[in-house]
Amino acid sequence: MMGHQHLDTDALEELRDVMEDEFDCLIETFITDADKKLIALRAAIEAEDASEVGKVSHSFKGSCSNIGAPYLSELCKESEDKGRNQDISNIQSLYLQIEEEYLQVKQLLSQQLS
């Protein structure tokens, strides 16, 4: 089975072209925001708050999509759907996948900084 695409390099290059000198700031802001979203998602899961899981996952999904992290966005969509369907009974393993994928994305994005 082939690995997942952690980063869409074409999307990142397009962002770099559009953002120019602000590209590093964009990446740093994404990382800071994503760190907070992971904490919020974990808290929502621990509180068994399906609605909050859905909201946080939706927001995180959009950020991941915008920065060019397709697999992380896909995982967040799964989490969002679970929250919306009020079924977070087995969400812990999905959270661990999100966390693991985010760490990969974070490392790769950090390498993009000048």
TrEMBL record:
Residues 19-114 form the HPt domain. The keyword Phosphoprotein applies. The modification Phosphohistidine is found at residue 58. The keyword Phosphoprotein applies. Transmembrane segments: none annotated. InterPro entries: HPT_dom_sf, Sig_transdc_His_kin_Hpt_dom. It comes from the Bacteria. Keywords: Phosphoprotein, Two-component regulatory system. PROSITE patterns: HPT. This is Hpt domain-containing protein.
